Amino acid sequence: MRPEIAVLDIQGQHRVYTEFYRSETAEKTIVLVNGSLATTASFAQTVRYLHPHFNVVLYDQPYAGQSKPHNLNHHPIRKEDEAAILLELIEHFAAEHVLSFSWGGAATLLALAQRPRRIEKAILSSFSPLVNAAMRDYLERGVQVLGACDRPGVGHLINSTIGKYLPSLFKRYNFRHVSSLAEHEYAQMHFHISEVLELINAQYYTRCADAIDIPMLFVNGEWDEYTTPEDARLFGTHLCKAQFRTIDNAGHFLDMEHKSALQQTRDALLGFLQSTPSLARPRTLAVESHALAS
Fold first, then answer.
1. How many CB atoms lie within 10 A of CB 108?
2. Residue 53 phi, psi (nearest 5)
3. Which of 33, 284, 64 shows the shortest CA–CA distance to 186?
4. For 40-44, 96-100, 275-279, which range has the lowest pLDDT when averaged over its residues?
5. Residue 291: pLDDT band by 50, 70, 90 thresholds?
6. Helix (H) or strand (E) holding 232
7. What are phi and psi of 227, to 5 degrees?
8. What Cα–Cα distance (Å) separates residue 76 from each residue in 66, 73, 164?
9. Domain count along the chain
10. What is the CATH number for 224?
11. Dihedrals φ, ψ of 133, to 5°?
12. Comparing C-alpha atoms, which of 66, 162, 125 is closest to residue 170?
């Protein structure tokens, strides 16, 4: 399964590396949006179960991964810039679906609030509208190690917090990856965290949700104290077609953590994406359930 690779020019401002996994049997295309400090490699397992049911698009942000050599990266980019890039990719690949992970949900919400005409369904995994106490502590510690360009410190912080439930092999990969990034990537993340820490409540993201009218699925791990299932359900009163799934015995990284979490996440995503759209429900109704292993 080899992707079609291209580096796309986005409005003359950014060059974005993309991977397009084409399926001869798929009728729909889905764009996957990375979390912070991540690259296309982070979605390796996700691609395996989405393809060949869908054409799958992966991409690196201008400052990250295989997009880095094609951009100057003199200045950090904003969430609004990342949202604009996502909207361009949706149009370029004629995508009907979007799936984001972790802080990729911020740019995804901003993009969806503009109601892109092609998008039919969206999934936000490991994301909530609230910066709770655990997340605030993680981000404040992140500001310190990123500001000091403390490479081992960044790796240890991630593995001891949001990555605490990852298998040891994944923790080693995480550490090697995040402790070997370019200085501008740490500066980008420092900039992003500083923005996030200014959000003292859920209003910023729920205002975006108020403008969205497509079916959306929120997937969170039962053990994730940073983006909890309970916090994610705050979106329920702002979205008329919101659904929620809790992955049992899983933390922030969901399908990377163990086989059961992988199966539950796969079943939740495919079940939502392949279901027939239902009539709009009252805005106060939100569906809550636990995804079960097959």
1. 27
2. -60, -30
3. 64
4. 275-279
5. very low
6. helix 229-232
7. -125, 85
8. 17, 7, 28
9. 2
10. 3.40.50.1820
11. -65, -45
12. 162
